[in-house]
Amino acid sequence: MTIHRRWIAKAGAALFAALLLYPFTALFARIGPWQWGPDVRGPALASVRVSLLLTGFAMLIIVALGTPVAAYIARCRPRERLLWQGILLIPILLPPLALGILMTLAFGPYAPVGAWLEHYGILMTNSATAFITTQVYVGMGYYVLGAVAALDAVPVVLQTQAALLGLSPMRVFLRVTLPLSRLGLAVALSIAWVRAIGEFGAMVVTAYYPSGMPVQLWVNLQSFGLPAVMPLLVVFLVAALPLPWMIHVLAQRQRHA
Length: 257
Fold this sequence. Notes:
Elements: H1 2-21, H2 38-74, H3 78-93, H4 96-107, H5 112-119, H6 128-152, H7 156-164, H8 169-197, H9 203-206, H10 213-224, H11 226-240, H12 242-256
Helix pairs in contact: 2-6, 2-8, 2-10, 2-11, 3-6, 6-8, 7-8, 8-12, 10-11
């Protein structure tokens, strides 16, 4: 009876996995020959360059700003930590389209900050700056919350012993905390990467141009139909999924090692 139930559980889990992976069968859907002519290929390749380059810059900013904030939150008292976590959840829970509209109004010429930036030639709509800024807002909460969890996993006793040996707080962080939490930080960054590079709702408002891959997929769908979407979709999946997937698998292996 126990073996019978175990096989039923395995069959149910296998069915669950098959249902989760089923949408990938769309890559073999019969929609006719894929289109990759000059009208499709040029903008598509440009969107790949835009997404990879500008999302990379956004990730550098997220790591540079988010890691110190995460280190501070990890050492906060419970009440202050709860406050910070509530603040970080706001951009995560905010509907993407609403975030895009709010950012356009806040950083555009309609607000003092936006007018000041525009006075100095910094355009916060339909520019590389707007693209990167939007992605930072989209991904920051995911990274910081994940980084806090990674830093929390480092044994306090090791950090205390390092401090007792005469290391300054900064050197304790760089030589003990950071190396022991690096894989967890990588997982947090991978989540921010996937979230940012795949953002559409906010990006279509703040940075319709230069078009990243999600916006260009929508443009191709509207202009040429599904056959023109598929080549860029494959590139999008290859760019967005494999590295974060591998990082998560490595993290799980280390956790259970």
